[in-house]
Design goal:
The protein has about 260 residues and is of the alpha/beta class. It is built from 11 helices and 8 strands. The N and C termini lie close together (about 5 Å). It binds phosphoenolpyruvate.
């Protein structure tokens, strides 16, 4: 872990009805102000609920150290895009971040690097920090292409105007998401070093400030090891972010 302030972000995906989601958000906010205040002093904690819960979560956490973000946004500000949510709408609800290019969006909705770059650009235009997800599939890793794929995704998804502080990158190997499997610490270190080097090529010294999160089956039991790797600046957490105790344990394990 470096001098960069860690970010622990929870991606609730399509989970949570009002009562459970609000209980979870309240529990995390209370923890950051109480037992978790030591963790709160060294890291930022963010939850990204489904779109239906962004507004109520924003309202119950107002004035606390917990922050809220979206899971996706459209590339346009407004218009005839039934079912979509714009970055400006998320900003209007109190979001500070939005996840873009999650592998489930890339797979289920055919999002390409170009789509992701446009969404990330919209996020910047709306004064949101895009959390840009990149990561190789298992077949790509087995074929020895992991570094090349992630470099291509990084360069293809980074929007114009990106700096080390207005975007966050999440390295999420697709085969580790929701599977309970994680890469070796050496593999995570290698991927994060590559992303930092790619960032340096685009952003110059600004790359030193860029937060690069690891995501993929982060749990209380493996968080200390994964978060302790050089160039890992926090985590994007799916399943384990749905239980307050597990998400808090991950944050506590983050140096
Ligand atoms: C994710 O959805 O981004 C993720 C990393 O999920 P999980 O932690 O469940 O693997």
């Amino acid at each position: 872990m470096s001098a960069r302030r860690a970010l622990i972000a929870g991606n609730w995906k399509m989970n949570g009805l009002r009562a459970d989601g609000l209980d979870l958000a309240r529990a995390l906010a209370a923890w950051l102000d109480g037992e978790g205040s030591e963790a709160a002093a060294r890291l930022d904690m963010l939850v990204c609920p489904p779109a239906t819960l962004v507004a109520p979560v924003a309202s119950v956490i107002a004035g606390t150290r917990l922050t809220v973000g979206g899971q996706d946004c459209h590339a346009q500000e407004k218009g005839a895009h039934t079912g979509d949510v714009s970055a400006w709408m998320l900003k209007d609800l109190g979001c500070g971040h939005v996840i873009v290019g999650h592998s489930e969006r890339r797979t289920d909705h055919g999002e390409t690097d170009e789509t992701v770059r446009a969404k990330a650009a919209a996020a910047l235009a709306a004064s949101l920090v895009p959390i840009i997800c990149i990561g190789e599939t298992e077949a790509e890793r087995d074929a020895g292409q992991a570094l090349a794929v992630v470099s291509r995704q990084f360069n293809g998804s980074l929007p114009e105007g990106a700096t080390g502080t207005n975007v966050v990158i999440a390295y999420e190997p697709v085969w580790a998401i929701g599977t309970g499997r994680t890469p070796t610490t050496e593999d995570v270190a290698e991927m994060h070093q590559r992303i930092r080097a790619d960032a340096r090529a685009c952003l110059g010294d600004g790359a030193d400030a860029l937060r690069v999160l690891y995501g993929g089956s982060v749990k209380p039991g493996n968080a200390a090891e994964l978060m302790g790797i050089a160039d890992v600046d926090g985590a994007l957490v799916g399943g384990a972010s749905l239980k307050a105790a597990d998400f808090q344990a991950i944050a506590s394990a983050c140096p």
